[in-house]
Amino acid sequence: MAREPANTPKGSIALVADSLRLPELLGTLFRTGRTGVLEIESGQLALRVAFHQGIPVVARGGSHDTLFGRILLSLGAIDSVEYAVLTERRALASSRRWRFGELAQACGYIDGEGINRALAEQVKRRILASFQWPAPALRFVPSREDAAPVDGSRHPQAVEVLVLAGIRSSFDSAHISERLRAVAGRYPVRLEAAERIGARLELTSEETAFVKDLGGTRTLEDRLLEAPLARGKAAQLIIALEVLGLLRFDEWPKTDAHRPG
Fold it and tell me: Which candidate, 27, 20, 29, 19, places its Cα nearest to that of 240?
C-alpha cells in the first residue's frame, strides 16, 4: 500500500518497492488518468517518466543500453560503420554539441520519421529496463499542468503492454503466489471482450483464448489448472488484467443456483 512520509512535499506520493511494485504503480496511474512525473531510483540509476492523463510520454535518464545511438543501431536504422562514424564526429565536434539523432539526420543516415520511431522505442526500453533495477524507490509527483515537453517530443506508450512485460520480468513465483492466494477460490470475470483485451496487451491467440474463458463460471484456481498455457504465464496475465482494471473477482459464480439468496 502507498504511504506518504513526513518529509514528502505536499501533493506528491512517495512509494517504495515493497509497498507497491512498479508495474502496479503504472497500472494505478493509468487507471486514474494521472498527470505528473514518476521518479524511479536504484543506486546510481535514475529515471524520470512524464505522464499525461495516465500515459507515459517522455522518459529521461536510465541505463547506458538505452542511449539513442544504441537504439538506432539495434533497430537497424544505422549500421555499425555509421554508428562508429557518428560517434567519432560527435567527439571531434567543437563548434556545437550534437545530439546523436540530429547528427545522424544531418549526415543523411536517417529522416525525421525514423528519429521519432527511435525516440518512442527509447522511452519504451527505458521503462522496461527499470523493471530490472533492484529495490527501486518510486515517487510520483502529480501536476495540474502537462509535465511533458510541448515541443512535439511526446511519445505515448501502450501502458497495457508495459505492465504485462513488467510483471513477467519482475514478479517471481513467490510474489505471484502471494498476490493470488486470497482470490484463488473466487471467480475471475473479464470486463472487456477478449479480442479487445488481446489487442491492447498484444497477446498471442493462446493467451486470448485463456482470457475469453474468464467469464466468472469457474474459480481462479480451476482456470489456472485448465489454462492452455503454462501456469506461471497464466498467473502473470491474471495479475496484469487486475492491475489494469480489466478483471474483477466475484465471490459467487455466474449461475443463479450459486448466487446468495
Answer: 27
**Predicted pLDDT at 67:** 83
Angle at the Cα of 37 from the Cα atoms of 201 and 75, rounded to 5 degrees:
50
* C-alpha grid cell, residue 105: 539526420
Residue 97: pLDDT band (50, 70, 90) is confident
pLDDT in tens, 154-171: 899 999 999 999 999 999
Q: Residue 50 above 80 pLDDT?
A: yes
How far from chain centre, in Å, is Cα 33?
A: 15
Whole-prediction pTM: 0.84
Nearest by Cα to 90 from 79, 78, 77, 103: 103
Burial class (CB in 10 A: 0-12, 13-18, 19+), 193: exposed
